[in-house]
Design brief:
Layout (H helix, E strand, L loop, with lengths): L4 H28 L7 E3 L5 E4 L4
Antiparallel strand pairs: 1-2
Keywords: Membrane, Transmembrane, Transmembrane helix
Length: 55
C-alpha cells in the first residue's frame, strides 16, 4: 500500500487537531482544579511571612 502526500497531510492535520484538543482539555482541568491562594502565610512564631500580594 502506498501512502500518498494527501493522505499523509490529512493524517498529520488530524493528529495535530486531536493533540490540540487533548492539550486544551488538560489546561482546562489544570485551571479548574488549581489550589486556592491563601490571604496570608503565617510562620511558626505567628509572624506573617507572605501575603497574597507577594504570591
Amino acid at each position: 500500500m502506498q501512502v500518498f502526500r494527501k493522505q499523509l497531510a490529512t493524517s498529520l492535520a488530524t493528529i495535530f487537531v486531536v493533540n490540540l484538543v487533548v492539550m486544551g482539555g488538560g489546561a482546562w482541568l489544570s485551571y479548574a482544579n488549581e489550589p486556592e491562594i491563601s490571604d496570608t502565610i503565617v510562620g511558626p512564631d505567628g509572624e506573617t511571612v507572605a501575603t497574597s500580594d507577594d504570591v
